[in-house]
Amino acid sequence: MDVYKTIILSMNNQIKKINLNHSFIFFLFSNIFSLIFFKLDNLDISPLICLFLILIVGVSHGSLDHKKGERIFKILNIKNISIFYFLYASLAALIVIMWIIAPSISLIIFLIVASYHFGKEDTQFLVNKISHFVRFLFFFKGSLIILAPMFFHFGETVSIFKLLLIDNENFYTSLEFIETNKILLIGLILSTLSSILLFLNEFEIKKFIIFFDYFSILILNYYFTPLIAFTVYFCFLHSIRHSISLIHEINSLNFYEGLKNFIKKALPLTILTAILCLIGMFFLMNSYDLNSSILKLIFIGLASLTFPHILLEYLLEKNEKQKN
User: Fold this and answer.
1) Got the DSSP string for 99-128?
2) Is 95:121 a contact under the CB 8 Å cutoff?
3) Is the distance from CB of 223 to CB of 38 less than 8 angstroms?
4) Residue whose C-alpha is closest to residue 220's, from 236, 205, 209
5) Residue 215 · residue 195 · CB < 8 Å
6) What Å distances lie between residue 253 and 5, 8, 14, 61, 133, CA to CA?
7) Checking phi first, is residue 127 left (phi over 0); if not, alpha (psi -120 to 50) or beta?
8) CA neighbor of 143 nearest in space, from 202, 189, 104, 75
9) Quick check: 26 and 269 in contact, CB under 8 A?
10) Which of 173, 196, 171, 175 is nearest to 184 (CA)?
11) In the chain, which residue ranges form alpha helices assigned H by DSSP?
12) Which helix (H) or strand (E) holds 56?
């Protein structure tokens, strides 16, 4: 048992080291990219580039969900894997339908769920024991992804919400109340405190990763539009970090071999998702211009993929704990 614990501890330290290097590189990248953008005032990044990056880099971190589904079905002794594909696709389609029927409620739920998801996925490798209090901290830490663009670019963020089929005047009245009464600032303070508490919890210097990530997100949202800032974060911090954990699961002894196997396994569903997005783009452009279609596709599409992805992660974690 001591040997097993030693191996697990060694693997966790390896993951922390890789993620520390990744966070530091991302922090440098965010600063250099922001400086270039600041110096080149006329630099314009097309939403099409953002969509391309999200499809290629961002979506790939969830493209092994079918493998996780197979693990759950094995635990539950269900042999017909086609049931998993049907349920996963049905839930994604249901989210899109719900968004069309009740966009305001769907957006609010998505922002709450996304805040927790981003906080947890970006930080859980640093936490040995996840309590209810730690989950609470995950939520506020992840809320920075939602609050920062609203704080620095409130008008542009509201414009994106309007493009996402949100036509409820009460919704925008509430947003204006939040802005004028400094509630966004309070939210940022709470997010900052959550990062500090997560850093101090079972303190070790490698947890300084949290602050690299924190300042990277603030820098990106200060200099860039909400779409560009989110794309850079989602693709090059959140998705790559999640992919690193998947690569480590595939091959904990040889990272580069694990990377090659990850790419092979992730490619089919990544390509399928890209094809479905292009089909969605074709239909959207019958009613909207290119940029509006892209924004709808990115955020509503991500919402439809995020819910089954998070549910799958929860079910896998729960069932594997019960099995052990």
Assistant:
1) HHH-HHHHHHHHHHHHHHHHHHHHHGGG-S
2) no
3) yes
4) 236
5) no
6) 16, 12, 10, 20, 33
7) beta
8) 189
9) no
10) 175
11) 2-39, 47-53, 65-75, 82-101, 103-123, 132-142, 144-152, 154-163, 169-180, 183-200, 209-223, 226-233, 240-250, 255-284, 290-323
12) none
Is 12 buried (19+), middle (13-18) or exposed (0-12) by CB count in 10 A?
middle
Closest by CA position to 138, among listed 194, 185, 205: 194
At 182, list the tokens.
């400094």
Q: What is the pLDDT of residues 124-150, one digit of tens each?
A: 888 888 889 999 999 999 999 999 999
Cβ atoms 23, 209 nearer than 8 A = yes
Q: What is the pLDDT of residues 167-226, one digit of tens each?
A: 888 888 899 999 888 999 999 999 999 999 999 987 787 788 899 999 999 999 999 999
User: 3-state class of 79 per DSSP?
Assistant: coil
pTM, entire model = 0.89
Contact 30, 219 (CB under 8 A): yes
